[in-house]
Design goal:
The chain has 136 residues and is of the alpha/beta class. The protein contains three helices and five strands. It has a single domain, classed as 3-Layer(aba) Sandwich (Rossmann fold), CATH 3.40.50.300.
């Protein structure tokens, strides 16, 4: 007589990061630090692009699979410096801080949120190892 094989349950950590819960990972850094190279290495075929509000600086966004979890990776425009912020750098920084949910203090500023999606859960600063002093 043949017995049926036993099914083994593998416990998963819950909840999985999928759908609305998936992680949002932002890549930031100075120009030519390798953000876009890293983004292209992990990106899928469905890359969504757009411009941050009030600028002509493009961002890229794509879905990536990390084990059983999903994440959205965002390739942001370069930030040249946190000292003496130019307008375009300020818009990138505003996205990192607030995403599409601007704080009440910004009601007087013209325009809407810098990007049409929520702020990142994780920020990865990409640096050029050959010039660490300048990039850090």
């Amino acid at each position: 007589m043949k017995t049926a094989p036993h099914a083994t349950a593998i416990p998963l950590r819950t909840p999985l990061f999928r759908g609305e819960r998936r992680l949002r990972i932002a890549l930031v850094g100075m120009p030519n630090s390798g953000k876009s190279t890293l983004f292209q290495a992990v990106s899928s075929t469905s890359i969504r692009t757009g411009e941050l509000a009030g600028t002509h600086r493009a961002y890229g966004e794509c879905a990536v699979q990390i084990g059983l979890d999903e994440a959205r990776v965002i390739d942001l425009p370069s930030i040249h410096s946190l000292h003496h912020l130019e307008h375009d750098d300020r818009v990138t920084l505003q996205y990192l801080l607030w995403g599409d949910d601007l704080p009440p203090v910004s009601v007087h500023e013209p325009g809407g949120p810098p990007a049409p999606f929520s702020p990142p859960d994780v920020i990865i600063q990409v640096v050029d190892a050959t010039s660490l002093e300048r990039h850090l």
